[in-house]
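Residues pack. Consider this:
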Amino acid sequence: MTAPTIVPPMTRWKVTVGDYHRMAAAGYFAGSRVELIEGEIVELNALGGQHIRCVALLSRWLDRAVGDDLFVSAQSSIRLNDRSEPEPDIVVLSALPEGAAPPSPEDVLLVVEVSDTSLAADRDVKAPLYAQARIPLMLLVDLQQATVSLYAQPGADGYRTRTTYGAGERLVFNLEKSITIDINVDSLFA
């Protein structure tokens, strides 16, 4: 009879946004794509061709729709609080932050996550964080299922509404300043 193997508990270090930025400045993440989620540094998945295409199309359409009234930024960090600074695929901002600081939730009108292999994390971890930060709208593009979900009405317990659009449907919603966003869902997955 062999003795059971005793596995010690994993040690996890929680870091703040300040720690995270100091680590980045010191080169800890050179060559890596990471984000800070609830005090943990999380490595992002590699970007595939369909993901890159979808982000490029959405960025172009959103930029055209908002014109000079708002700002569209791809692959930008958002400082949600002192423990989380995710890097969504696209954000629509009401104003650009001053200096070197990333946008805060008050600046963000829409956040977009394009998911290929990260659907569970985007839906179950990041969406609740965006809602708790009171970001008004979130789009979750599911490349595997060829659907787009619009999350609205943020609150402490998450977004209260989620509407999912699929093949043959149009996603139409309004941003601040009566800007209408109209997306043919099929065109994202062609």
Remarks:
- The chain has a mean pLDDT of 92.
- Helices lie at 17-25, 49-66, 119-132, 185-189.
